[in-house]
Amino acid sequence: MHDSLINDPKGGMPRLLEIMERLRDPENGCPWDIEQTWQTIAPYTIEEAYEVADAIEREAWDELKGELGDLLLQVVYFAQMGTEEGRFTFAEIADGISDKMVDRHPHVFGDESRDKSAEQQTRDWEVQKARERQEKGEARVLDGVALGLPALLRAFKLQKRAARVGFDWDNADMVLDKIREEAEELAEAAASGPHDRIEDEMGDMLFVLANLARHLGVDPEQALRRTNEKFVRRFNALEDVLHASGSSPADATLDEMDALWNAAKKSEPGRG
Fold this sequence. Notes:
Elements: H1 3-6, H2 12-23, H3 31-35, H4 38-57, H5 61-84, H6 90-104, H7 106-109, H8 118-135, H9 151-163, H10 172-192, H11 195-215, H12 220-244, H13 254-266
EC number: 3.6.1.9
Enzyme class: hydrolase
Protein name: Nucleoside triphosphate pyrophosphohydrolase
């Protein structure tokens, strides 16, 4: 046992790794931590990544350090389980990503010229990633796009991958035409059912909207997060006004809430 390291406020990564090892110790560790598996920790990892993104979106810099620590803990958790099962160690994880960064940046760490645009470097990066996918046996164009991604983000990445081999609309106007077509099909499905067809047409609509976002240079996941926060902000504002008058959303009419919504919208200059 290395209590001196665990209690060292400046212990850095060695301290965190030691803490995780102790938490997972079968005899003296934490019962909850001992019971965790790859499958139970994975959802926390996704959640922590979104909390990092949320702190950045809100520019909550005082919170960001803590959120990054929570995300780092997930990596340490997986590394400890990997060590226990003889799969890999934290050092091997760090070495692996270091090797990848060096290999993918020959213009920084090798002999290639740095006299390239960011766009050219992005193309070179994609060529290198494609080569790595082939080495891993991922021969198909869409292989390797993670199943665990949020559906909207996965749609975006699938379309981006397909576009690299020319399977794409020429411009955003063509995507807009497709959206109009999908909207008509969704309306027909909603009118006649069944539910499976409605769900299918709704999926088609969302998929095409993700494609439009790509053509417009917009991250659809980020755009939807911003709109979610906008909705929360404006609804909270109308709720505050109602509470101040002794009322609540449940007591107000739709017309009253709509008027308060519009007032909240006007109070945010430059916002749609």
